[in-house]
Amino acid sequence: MPEYVLQVKNLTVQANQKVILKDINLDIEKNSTVILFGPNGSGKSALIKTIVGISGYKIVKGDIFFEGKSIKDLPIHERARLGIGIMFQHSPKVRGVRLEQIAHFLTSQEEKIKSLASQLHLDKIFHRELNFDFSGGEMKRSELFQIILQQPKLLLLDEPESGVDLENISLMGSILDSFLKEQKPASLIITHTGYILDYIQATTGWVMIDGAIHCIGHPREIFETIRKFGYERYRKCL
User: Fold this and answer.
1) Which of 7, 16, 229, 237 is the most buried if burial means most Cβ atoms within 10 Å?
2) Comparing C-alpha atoms, which of 26, 21, 33 is closest to residue 9?
3) Beta strand pairing status for 154-158 and 84-87?
């Protein structure tokens, strides 16, 4: 019998009094990596923000289960404590808090901090305030650094390759792949470019259009179809 880390049941969500997610049903098994595709504005980011508990997203129907228990009424810090981690597409700047402080808050393993910071080429920004004067690549590498130190059971990544060059994608993809293989968290990864598929072994792909899941299939096949024919090809799966 499958062991599910995340289950979303009949989920309908509003933001600014507008329905943005409609009757979402999905399951993520332990140790699996799911890719979520969809055009801009389709609700992909809204889904993972709802899962993690970001304010402004109101569940009007349905439920979210983490390891078999409902979390829809839990605040964001409680969901993080259970083992849900998120890497945002656009990282907030935090005045007065340095990256090194965040690292030591997440773990007391000094050698692990130093090793991972070195692998992700974060030495130059390690003592800076979080995301101030960071390049796009530095922000993404910093986010990946933090989420790996968190050691989540469920990893939510919102377009990790967005806004960075191919060299950064290669570096991040390699380290992310190692983390997924070694620690074996469940993961849900949003991608628009598909580049991340070159570095990780994804198990399932979903296509979201207009706030609903339209198709489920092999992620590489889905991406190649989108690349050739666009998202309209997937409307008929619903």
Assistant:
1) 7
2) 26
3) parallel
Q: List the one residue out of 52, 112, 57 whose CA is nearest residue 83.
A: 52
Q: Is the pLDDT of residue 92 over 80?
A: no
Residue 135 has which token pair? 């390049």
- In the structure, what pLDDT confidence band is assigned to residue 129 with cuts at 50, 70 and 90? confident
Residue 117, both tokens: 């910071």
Pull the structure tokens for residue 138. 């530095």
Total Cβ atoms within 10 A of residue 139: 19
Q: Minimal CA–CA distance to 29: which of 216, 205, 203, 218?
A: 203
3-state percent helix, strand, coil for the chain, nearest multiple of 5: 40, 30, 30
146-168 pLDDT, tens per residue? 999 999 999 999 998 887 888 88
Where b means 16+ CB within 10 Å and e means fewer, 6-23 reads: bbbbebbbbbeeeebbee
Residue with tokens 């399951």: 27
Cα gap 234→236, rounded to integer Å: 5
Mean pLDDT over 185-193 rounds to: 92
| Superfamily holding 4-237 | P-loop containing nucleotide triphosphate hydrolases (3.40.50.300)
The region of weakest confidence among 90-94, 140-144, 180-184 is 90-94
For the chain, the domains span 4-237
The two three-digit tokens of residue 183, written as one number: 């620690």
pLDDT for 238 equals 53
Rounded CA-CA distance 74/76 in Å is 7
By the 8 A CB rule, do 165 and 77 touch? no
